[in-house]
Protein: NADPH:quinone oxidoreductase family protein
Amino acid sequence: MHAWLCTTLDGVDALSWQELPTPEPQAGQVRIAIRAASLNFPDLLTVQGKYQVKPPLPFAPGSEFAGTVEAVGEGVRHLKPGMAVAAIGSHGGFATHAVVPASGVLPLPPGFALEDGAAFAFTYGTSHHALIDRAQLKPGETVLVLGAAGGVGTAALQIAKASGARVIAAASTDEKCQRCIELGADATLNYSRENVRDALKALTDGRGPDVVYDPVGGDLAEPVFRSIAWRGRYLVVGFAGGAIPALPWNLALLKGASVVGVFWGDFVRREPAASQAAMLQLAGWYAAGQIKPVIDQTLPMSELKAAYARMGSRQVMGKLLLVNG
Structure:
């Protein structure tokens, strides 16, 4: 097998493509021949040592991938060689093969493309947990999605629409805003050139959004929170903008609003039954054509560093896929 190995936490440039012995799965593990892996923002943080999960060195990055089961270890009952599966973990995906705990492997339903499987669980699981579980989104409410053209943003947009909400998609360029309209957004906001508070006031008849989905953080947080509706819910999903905002607490008091943390990884670990139910609903929406991963580019696995560079330049709309031929 081959894998991109991270031997130091010096970032993307230190990664190297290496040949390794193909491992055998131990008890409770499976070996997957990887067809496709997607690049997520935590994959960038992980190779820099900045993510909350820090795998022991050396490791292959890549937290989300899909492929075919090749071998199963002792005690594994729900997976068999030849099955199409998706895997979620902290690392291992940027390779030709991976041995992972069977508990983190999801059989893909018939008709579920492997490429979509590699770009599904992380972003759609996060967005479903945020909007449906944490925000308790109701039909007819207005959702503001920040970073709406990115991986979790496009997933949040689709899930909100599937739930009967009105969606305002906020992004940094007119091109990204137009892509969001094509994906079903009801309105857009270009926060690189529009006054956020004025735009939200106009788009909501002065009421403000009921739910804010924020994977960006940074300077956008305060003006958006000042614009939130009465009893609004502000979902803290991540900080792709770099800075962790400090919000004045009196704003929550004045709006009767909630600041709600979203940590999908721990939700999966702590509440596996609820997580499984969410994934079943998502699979049903996928089968019905209501949601589908937005693929920005599909690149050979050998071009991982180019994929990282594209993500770092903030050009990505949807997800980047790396595939093995």
